[in-house]
Amino acid sequence: AQKVTQAQTEISVVEKEDVTLDCVYETRDTTYYLFWYKQPPSGELVFLIRRNSFDEQNEISGRYSWNFQKSTSSFNFTITASQVVDSAVYFCAGFGVSNYQLIWGAGTKLIIKP
Amino acid sequence: ETGVTQTPRHLVMGMTNKKSLKCEQHLGHNAMYWYKQSAKKPLELMFVYNFKEQTENNSVPSRFSPECPNSSHLFLHLHTLQPEDSALYLCASSQLDRVGQETQYFGPGTRLLVL
């Protein structure tokens, strides 16, 4: 069975702090895809990134960066110099080629205090 | 225009009412999805349509009836709902490739309250 674990239910930091959200994807597939989505209070799920299991390069996009470790199937998300607008629920999801379905984590609620 | 639109954004209905949720995607995708998001619960996949054919139905009660007349439009018909059906209903679309992998793009959702 495939499973996505986001161990942090809620994180609260003060603005400008760096924060890392954890995600672990359990699968027997050697080929799989990992995603991060952001859900602000408005409700819409906003796609942030997609990563293939065979591409272990880390990725940076502005204040966002992602660290993929295939050995542990972890795909962590770091926000540098956090801002109040980063407050949202962040979801990690995984897609294994044997399952053919996107599996979602429970989400991490991120609160950025001014 | 935004990629995936949903109407209405908010809906309050009684248990005896019949209503429909509408989703439209402007991304040229070939697959569409309905998800349910309840408070304190994980995102639940309800239905998947691939090239207008329903390929997934995750044991959803028959009071929820999907309809996909074409690859751009998806409806969720609601009748005799229960209070526990109150949730955020999200529509998504994606372009399935040969592997079947996709990036799903979501609409803003419909917040449904059943009284």
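The CA atoms of residues 32 and 96 of chain A lie 4 Å apart.
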